[in-house]
Amino acid sequence: MTNDSETLAQLKTALLKAQTVGAIYSVIEDYTYQEFEQVYQELTPNQKVRLETIRDRDTHHQLLAIHQPSNETIA
């Protein structure tokens, strides 16, 4: 059984390894809001920007995919 500091270290490591917003969400679903907030507050500004950039990039791509006109024609 891990202690709190080990749990938070695992969360931080997993967050920093994430390459997509889906991976970030997959990581944080296994932790409480308080654990996530504690780890997030301990991140450096550059680490926070990296996570925010991934979130913004992937969210933008998802929105483009949703709103992209279809090439199909209705007969």
**Low confidence ranges:** none
Major sheet, described briefly?
none
| Strand coverage percent | under 5%
Shape: elongated
Question: Helical residue percent?
Answer: over 70%
The run of helices and strands is HHHH
Through-space gap between termini: 61 Å
Helix-and-strand structural type: mainly alpha
Radius of gyration using CA atoms only: 17 Å
Instruction: Return the average pLDDT rounded to an integer.
Output: 88
Q: Count up the helices.
A: 4
- Let me know the number of strands: 0
What keywords describe this structure?
75 residues, mainly alpha
How would you describe the overall organization of this protein?
The chain is mainly alpha-helical. The chain is built from 4 helices and no strands.
Topology of this protein?
Layout: H1 4-17, H2 21-28, H3 33-42, H4 45-67
Helix pairs in contact: 1-3
In short:
With 75 residues, the protein is mainly α. Helices cover 73% and strands 0% of the residues.
